[in-house]
Structures are given as structure tokens and as C-alpha cells.
């Protein structure tokens, strides 16, 4: 049995399950309804039902269904604070927005990527077929800059791709040996990606902590809830780190300012909320604002990505024409 749902099935599963729970269905009744709809693989719904019958948590089933670590943690916290229906619908909404941005990204990059591949094939064809004939005819000098460009360009593109693949392999190798705190602190310091990274996790933490504070839980209770979750995650490691520093007498707001993967204003929001006694609601409002900012920035980057890639393609096309025509014109001038 393949314990996987497609991205669209995950969105539908969370949305339907959240809607059914909101409308008064018990968890078992909701799962039985989902089983009869034939929308999802029956064996996967039965797996969730079996886990619940054996006393396992819903978050455990979400981990088996290949939901992300962050989503599994959200479900676990939702079970703890009693807002599982709202949590599931929130996950569905976030996944839908991410899916939309992913589709926009693919649309923006697919056509330029095909053009780049086509240009690479042209350069390889010129290098292997056209250049040898021109060099043998004596019309073009071997050390001509345009000739050197045509010879080097394909290797340059291939080299960039290989370096990119090597960096990904090194990142995966290094990341497996590091804690979540170290990995995500490093990502938050990278240009361009770092800002999106900080917005995403600030909104995510504000949402989950806001719900817990709004339920009336104290900070130590929230930390205990996070440490009790089964799967390792950034939030769990952060809770352990906060617990150690709270014992030393440091305030929560002061500690949060030291983590690079959180925005600078996150600690200020916490400090203001603690003073006013309304921390839960302020974090929930802040979460909505940062989510809006995150997706606005993501959409802005996608909107600029295609023009930039097209500009790069245009420059390559011009370079290829120049590389072909200049040597030929120089050769013709020599003949005349």
C-alpha cells in the first residue's frame, strides 16, 4: 500500500475533514463519510481509522500520509488545544495558496527554460558542426573572442548546472547532521530567500502560539505541549531552547529577538502582548498580516522572474548572433 496522497488530495482531505468536524461530525463519523465518497484511496482512510481505534493520535496518521513536519505539528497542537477543525481548514488554506504560487512559478519559468535549453542545443550544434568547417576554411582565426565564446558557452552552462546540483547534495548532507535551529538560522541569513523564510516562520509561529495563548495556556504549558509532540521540528527545538533560557531568567520577548528565522518585530509583538495581557489575539492578528506579506512578496518575485529570464534569453540570442556574424564579416573583409 502506498501511504501517499497527491497535493490536491491533501488539500481536499484537510478541508473536508475540517468542514465535517465544524458541522458536528465526530472524527470517526467524518472519516467514514470520507471513505464512502470515493475521493481518497479507501486503504488510506482505513489506515487513519485503524490508528484512531488503536489509540494513536490524528497527527501520527498525518505523518504516515506524508504531510510535512510543520503540518503534522499543527495537527498535534490542534488536538491539544481543541481547535482541530480550525487547524485543518487553516492547513488547507495555506496549502492552496502555496499550490497557487507554485503553479505561477512553473508558468513563469517553463517557457524561458525551454528557450534556454533550445539555445544550449544551438550552441552545442555550432560548436560541433559549424565551427570546425569555418576554422578549416581559414575565414576565422582560432583566437577570435567570438569563437572562444561559442566554444566555452555550453561548458559554462553545464558547469553552472553541475555546481547547482553539487550545492544541493552538500546542503542535504550537511543538513542531516545539523539541528533545525542551525539549519533554519543559516537559511534566514541568505539574501532574498532569507526574507521569505523569516516571514513564513514568523507567521507560522505566531499562528500556532496565538491559538495556544488564546486558549488560556501559560508559556510553560505551551512549551510542555510542544516538547510532548512526537516528531522533531523547528518549533520543538525552539521550545527546548526557550525552556533552558527561561530557567536563567530571560524574558520570552528578549529571547525571540536572538533567532534569525523570526522577524525583528516578532519579539516586539510578544512584548506588547504580554504588557497588555492580550498576547494570543495580537499574535493571531500579526500572523494574518505576515501571511499576507509573505504571499505578496512571493507573487512579486514570480511576476519579475519571467521578464528577467526572458532578458537573459534575449542577451544570449544577441550574443550568439554576434558570435556568428562578427567572425564571418571579418573573414569577408579579409577576402575583399
UniProtKB/TrEMBL annotation:
Kindly give the Pfam families that the UniProt entry links to this protein: T2SSF
The subcellular location is: Cell membrane
Source organism's superkingdom? Bacteria
What name appears for this protein in its UniProt entry?
Type II secretion system protein GspF domain-containing protein
- Domain Type II secretion system protein GspF: where? 13-132, 205-327
Q: What's one GO-annotated cellular component?
A: plasma membrane
Name its species.
Enterococcus pallens ATCC BAA-351
Transmembrane regions: 105-126, 146-174, 301-326
Q: Which Gene3D superfamilies match?
A: Type II secretion system (T2SS), domain F
